[in-house]
Amino acid sequence: MAATRNSGFDDPFYQPADKFFPANNNIGLTFDDITLATLYSEILPRDTQLDTTLADGLHLNIPVISSDMDTVTESRMAIAMALNGGLGLIHYNLPEREQLSQVSRVKNHVHGLIQEPIQVSPDQFIGDVLAMIEQKKFGFSTFPVVDEKGKLVGLLPGHVVKPRYAKRKISEALQPRAQVHTINQKELSKDPIARADKFFTEHLGIHKLLVVDDKDHLRGLITLNDVEHITQERAAQFKPARDSHFRLVCGAAVSATRNAFGELDKKRILEHVGGLVERGVDVVAVSTAHGHTKGVGDMVRVLRDAFPKLPLIAGNVTSAAGVEFLADCGADAIKVGQGPGSICTTRIVAGVGIPQMTALYVCARAAAKKKVTILADGGITKSGDIVKALTLSEAVICGGIFAGCNEAPGDVVEISGKLYKQYRGMGSFAAMKAGSAARYGHDKNPAQKVAPEGVEALKEACGSVDRVLAQLIGGIQSGMGYLGAANLAQLRGKARYIRVSPAGMREAAPHDVVELKTGN
Ligand code: IMP
User: Fold this and answer.
1) Which whole-number Å values give the CA distances from 307 to 102, 170, 489, in the listed order?
2) What pLDDT is attached to residue 257?
3) 322 CA from centroid of ligand 1 (Å)
4) Ligand 1 touching residue 399 (CB < 6 A)
5) Which residue from 394, 384, 255, 380 is spatially nearest to 335, judged by alpha carbons?
6) The ligand 1 atom nearest the CA atom of 316
7) Who's near 9: CB < 8 A, 6+ residues apart?
8) Is the pLDDT of residue 446 over 60?
9) Which value, in Å, is the radius of gyration of the alpha carbons in the chain?
10) Ligand 1 pocket, 398 CB below 6 A?
11) What is the atom index within ligand 1 of the atom nearest the CA of 338?
12) Is this prediction's pTM over 0.70?
């Protein structure tokens, strides 16, 4: 029989994590310092599964999270990430109310049955509706019309919501109740999408179905577009990441807000996180540069006590003691990374931080003991880095890779014929002035002496998140195929490492050729 198992000759060279990292305990290693050895495989890359559980109630279909940075994740990015099966963490450099509405936008994005559709009243003017669409940035213009008791009186069709009709009352323009297609909520079976799909097939040209109760109160809205999206996604390999109500998952970062006396402002923190929870947030991240601190521990404890079931991410740390501390305070997933970020200058400014693969190994051991998960945060520049990170963690957090995408906040700028988007560290001077100073233990007041730990930079514009993620996922699946890993647990179990010399690193990239097209 052909040899399908490892040969003893390999073992001294290609070592599993528990041998390799302790054997290299006198040096900090990062992604490019190591490479993974191939193993006998019966797994085709396209058949690999990438789903990951980060906490009870937080399951993703791909192990990729977009960073809580003000040039990376707002609602557009979070929607794109969740539609691809991942997660976006909405940053906190914005007024609390604005962060709440960003979360609402993600949670209300295409989820089949919209349980609380935006409604208008017959006494409003079309001009009011136009102003609301502009202010809330709605991407739709058809609204159910209800009276003051919530009873359905008609539907305001999108084709009359135009500036030329601004002075007309909705009551003049609406399609009356008798002509509106509705379904009683009792008729919606366990699978409202299948029921609505049948309805739309039977009713040629109808795009909206309103859900009412026995008293004709509006109870929901289903659109043909949403139903078609969802029917298509049921056939996709990596399905969108959704909650139990079929809404896209969304995370939000929060800062350890302090009052005038320098104490944690518990009231304000709980009010804000309560608002996030009300809007359906799936996970809250306590994001700081130094997570192994009393302040972060207190914050995590406050949130854990107030919201026992809410998945909590906390960080950042690079030591086993840091992981154990945050786990004991109640965190479910711990962010690992101090200094690897592409915009980060922490190691230069503070002389502190640990190369990422060593940090991940040390933290992963403590995480296994404490039964928490690890998120590899920062320093990822290519899909191979993600494969390496996933041998020791449950998911990766990326900033720079997504900052040039269409869905990242900010405008595209043209410089010498090339297109770029702004990307800045949350510890850069500009970002701290905009609100993130607490993350770095500084005051927002620019008059204070503050040492920035991040730079302001540009990323080349790189198209849609779909496109970038397709490349990354393809790379992760290739890596898993080489290791014979059908899923991420097998990848973690099977990985064997070896160090790479500087010459080996040069060998790893294209060399001795004139490159016509880059790999990506
Ligand atoms: P990237 O994916 O390599 O660009 O790194 C993104 C990560 O860097 C974020 O998720 C944060 O953990 C971290 N980070 C963000 N801003 C700063 C900063 O200003 N200084 C240091 N690290 C930062």
Assistant:
1) 21, 42, 29
2) 82
3) 18
4) yes
5) 394
6) 12
7) none
8) no
9) 25
10) yes
11) 22
12) yes
345 Cα to the center of ligand 1, angstroms? 9
State whether the beta carbon of 452 lies less than 6 angstroms from ligand 1: no
Say if ligand 1 is within 6 A of residue 70 CB.
no
User: Is any atom of ligand 1 closer than 6 Å to the C-beta of 397?
Assistant: yes
Instruction: Name the 3-class secondary structure at 287.
Output: strand
Residues labelled as active-site residues: 344, 439
Measured CA to CA, the distance from residue 313 to residue 394 in angstroms comes to 12
Which long-range CB contacts under 8 A does 309-312 form with residues at least 24 apart? 309/56, 309/57, 310/273, 310/277, 310/281, 310/283, 310/284, 311/54, 311/55, 311/56, 311/57, 311/58, 311/282, 311/283, 311/284, 312/55, 312/283, 312/284, 312/285, 312/286
Atom 4 (ligand 1) nearest CA: 400
**Lookup: tokens for 413:** 């700028």
Grouping H, G, I as helix, E, B as strand and the rest as coil, residue 385 is helix
pLDDT, tens digit (0-9, with 9 covering 90-100), for 482-513: 999 999 999 999 999 999 999 999 999 889 89
Tally the residues of the chain: 520
426 in ligand 1 pocket by Cβ < 6 Å? yes
* Residue located nearest, by CA, to atom 17 of ligand 1: 425
- CA distance to 66, 368, 376, 395, 503, per residue, from 334 (Å): 15, 12, 9, 10, 35
Place of tokens 């730079």: 455
User: pLDDT for 298-351, tens place per residue?
Assistant: 999 999 999 999 999 999 999 999 999 999 999 999 999 999 999 999 999 999
The phi, psi pair for 194, rounded to 5°, reads -65, -40
Backbone angles phi, psi at 191, to 5 degrees: -115, 80
Candidate from 1-10, 89-98, 416-425, 508-517 with smallest mean pLDDT: 1-10
Distance (angstroms) between ligand 1 centre and the Cα of 403 equals 11
